[in-house]
Structure prediction request, 479 residues.
Amino acid sequence: MQCPVGSLGYTIRMDKQTRLRQLPKTDEVLARPEIAELVAANPRAIVLDAVRDATDAVRTRILGSDDSVYDTDTFLADVRTRVTVASKRSLHGVINATGIIVHTNLGRSLLSERAVAAVAEVAGGYSTLEYDVVSGERGSRHVHCEEMLCRLTGAEAAIAVNNNASAVMMAISALSRGKEAIVSRGQLVEIGGSFRVPDIMAESGATMVEVGTTNKTHLCDYENAITERTGLLLKVHSSNFRVIGFTQEIGVAELVELGDRTGVPIYEDQGSGVLVDLRRWGLPYEPTVGESIAAGAHLVSCSGDKLLGGPQAGLLLGRKDIIDRLKKHPLARVLRLDKMTLAALEVTLRTYLDEDRALAEIPTLRMLSTPVAQIRARAEAMADRLRGACGDVADIGVADDVGRAGGGALPMADIPSAVVSVSPRCISEFEFEKRLRLGEPTIVARIKEGRLLFDLRTLQSAEENAVIDRIAAILGGGA
Ligand SMILES: *Cc1c(COP(=O)(O)O)cnc(C)c1O
Prediction:
């Protein structure tokens, strides 16, 4: 910024001390009506911090340059921006237009409306969390989901904990601490960064015994590794990767036969928590939890918020004597679920009693199973409305694309989908993507070859208007 130009035509430069003295004192700033307005609408501490930080910023600028001066309007605008940024919740909703259904970074599964209502009810009021209404005495929080888990999978008993990683840790600790746990080399996977089978083994206090090779493991590899020190035989779903070609994995039924013969429990970490046969809706085959139980697995674990479509949780299902040991383990208390998660999980599981209802109501299943023709029709309609709202400031089209189940579930499945593609004429696709992400509401979309793609498989119908309004506002169009 330039200082006033003197009558002789040259710039009068104030020295730094003079310019610093023009900075208002914090008390003077707080007394201004503009700031009083901010204090009325926001926590005082946040406004105070914003005023101090804005003042520091001006001071730093003056010290660092020869012509920077204090300007009230610029200063107040800066304070307002800082208050807005600091007042925005860190954890808030976003619109997922990526086409990745179980998106780990965006909160995995959405809860059904009835699950959300149950969460709100127990969150805002007292509940039967550990109260048995029949006897009027103390109850157990484990009962709320156990019966439903057993009914849906055929397991004898079940327990739900914080997430599947903790379920695996608790299971190995309880069954194999100080003993050996056998696992195939082809299943020593890393899932989502920090979940690595060898590390979980080490933390659980079990000695890992690797058998077979990366691509092939035979039943005799397992059999030869069993000794009196063996506590457990673990089978891990490889989730986010596949070994293809010359491969062999031993199925649960064969392992169970070996386990029963040698007295070693067979535990399968099944991962995605599929409760219904997805082939019914044209999706690739994924073994269900019930199939593992039916094959005789003594213990099975899975996530609550992948393909099951519920809240974050780890489910352990299997033989009653094993689940009883888990319930008594100290980690059961450490990893126990809170009432809100239990409420959401119970409702989600109950919805599965009617498979068609589960498909209609559980968002993850609904998004997975919607026919692509229906998604394409929505995309066409949305593209038309966007053309109306944006005029000629962007090229708007509809294209076929592929979505993903995501979240280490159905790892190799391309799920056909349809996208609205928007190629802005006035700004770059990178700037466009950034403004969508930083605006209100936050919209996360995918860049591809100069365009932004909005995948209608994960973009909810109720969100379409907000997305159209935001795009129109950013691109500044108008028919
Ligand atoms: C996803 C996954 C886990 C980790 O589950 P979280 O619910 O994310 O803790 C563990 N094992 C397998 C096989 C998985 O797919």
About this structure: Residues 163-165, 168, 191-192, 195, 236-237, 239, 269, 271-272, 303, 314, 408 surround pyridoxal-5'-phosphate (CB under 6 Å).
